[in-house]
Design brief:
There is one protein chain. By secondary structure, the protein is an alpha+beta fold. It has three domains: 1-100, Double Stranded RNA Binding Domain, CATH 3.30.160.390; 106-211, Tyrosine recombinase, N-terminal domain (DNA polymerase, domain 1), CATH 1.10.150; 220-422, hpI Integrase, Chain A, CATH 1.10.443. The chain contains 17 helices and ten strands. Strands 1-2-3-4-5 form a five-stranded mixed β-sheet, sandwiched between helices. Helix 7 runs antiparallel to helix 8. It is globular and about 65 Å long.
Length: 428
């Protein structure tokens, strides 16, 4: 939120956006104006950011001009008061819009609402989903503000289409697809549990369109530029872009991106890791009771190369006694938004270093690809990534853990990576 603006009707009517931007509102702690290009016009959405247990939470207040400046100020003030007392600002926003929604003649006795369906689903998700917080965010941020108070019996397919199209117009087609998928799951769970009689009709096509499978792999030149660029970005000086903006990222997050490349593990696994997960130069990624397949229901052991251990040694110093690799800077506890912090840092690094599009997960793919290039077998490389055999018979009968081979592979990959980052003229 680098840019701070004074919120007036005149400013809102004249603001333009070539790309999506979040602007902080002066004098209004946590009030954000998101401007997004939308088919030749600019959409202007008010959001409220607050913190709960060290994690940033966001609530969409409404879109201008449906929500005026005065109303945005009033609604923001209510949310601040509720958040300070430990309450739920989302409930305030939902109630605000419910008061302004047109009254239905069938409102009384109309049965469960979409909010009731979401509540039922999230209670089940807490027990059964690997990452229930993702489902909660998708539904609470993108569904409840517009559809939460709608009785399911009165919900039309057109209502769902319009809610999803609004997300697409914000410039988030992939997010619209995820919301569509998880909302349909929510209705299916509610129907299975006899909360509602049937699942509403959903559009057959994904709202955000077909998604392309990513195949992005960083070249040796890009790896070297990124590795040293992360050092520069996490220094006190940072990197100054052509427009004069200075970009800095936290050193701990820079190390997390390096660790993802060195260990070939997922962003979320690094974000939630604890120091007591490490023993005998091996990182144990705990299993989850929410994993459905038997071959996933075992811990994943990742041997740590000397390069990984050097990065972790620096990260441990930065953690300052916290039990977590990437603790919240406010509470020293695990921060549920650390995975998003890694993604944000990747975007900032990509822009500051003028690199072609890449994302944190592409570092995992890059490591896997280059392990194949240096001769690591597919069987061992897939075990490093935590992938089980595709053949269920192999998964059943071959219980060999490949620990020795995985350590050799990751040591070999670390040696190759150190060659790449130290080369004066690495190959593309």
């Amino acid at each position: 939120m680098g840019t701070v603006v004074k919120l007036t009707e005149k400013f809102l009517q004249g603001v333009k956006a070539e790309k999506r931007r979040d602007l902080s509102v002066t004098g209004r702690t946590g009030l954000i104006l998101r401007v997004t290009p939308d088919r030749g016009r600019t959409s202007r959405t008010f959001r409220y950011r607050y913190f709960r247990e060290g994690s940033a939470k966001y609530v969409t207040l409404g879109e201008y001009p449906a929500l005026s400046v005065a109303d945005a100020h009033e609604l923001h003030a209510r949310c601040v008061t509720v958040a300070k007392s430990g309450g739920d600002p989302q409930a305030i926003v939902s109630a605000y819009w419910a008061e302004r929604a047109p009254r239905s003649t069938a409102a009384d006795g109309a049965g469960p609402t979409v909010a009731d369906v979401v509540k039922e689903f999230l209670a089940v998700a807490e027990r059964k989903r690997k990452r229930p917080e993702q489902a909660r965010y998708l539904l609470e941020a993108n569904v409840l503000p517009s559809l939460g108070d709608r009785p399911v019996a009165q919900l039309r397919k057109r209502d769902i289409v319009e809610a999803l199209d609004k997300i697409v117009r914000r410039g988030s087609p992939v997010l619209a697809n995820r919301v569509q998928q998880v909302l349909k799951q929510a209705f299916q769970v509610a129907a299975d549990r006899d909360l509602i009689d049937s699942v509403p009709i959903f559009p057959r096509a994904l709202a955000g369109g077909d998604e392309q499978t990513r195949t992005r792999v960083l070249t040796e030149t890009e790896i070297r530029a990124l590795w040293h660029g992360l050092d520069a970005l996490s220094s006190d000086a940072g990197i100054t872009k052509d427009d004069g903006e200075t970009v800095r990222i936290p050193r701990s997050i820079a190390l997390a991106l390096k660790l993802q490349l060195v260990t070939a593990q997922r962003r979320g696994e690094i974000a939630g890791a604890r120091w007591d997960d490490i023993a005998d130069s091996t990182w144990c990624i705990p299993t989850s009771p929410k994993k459905k397949r038997a071959r996933e229901n075992v811990p994943h052991y990742v041997p740590l190369s000397p390069l990984a251990e050097r990065l972790l040694e620096e990260l441990r110093t930065l953690a300052a006694g916290s039990p977590y690799w990437l603790p919240s800077q406010r509470t020293a506890k695990v921060a549920t938004d650390r995975a998003r912090s890694i993604s944000k840092a990747a975007r900032e690094a990509r822009s500051a270093l003028k690199m072609a599009d890449w994302r944190p997960h592409d570092l995992r793919r890059t490591a896997r690809t280059l392990m194949a290039k240096i001769g690591v077998s597919d069987t061992v490389a897939e075990r490093v990534l935590g992938h089980g055999p595709d053949d269920p018979m192999v998964a059943t009968y071959n219980q060999y853990p490949y620990r020795v081979e995985m350590r050799e592979a990751l040591d070999q990959w670390a040696t190759e990576l150190e060659r790449i980052i130290s080369a004066k003229d690495p190959k593309r």
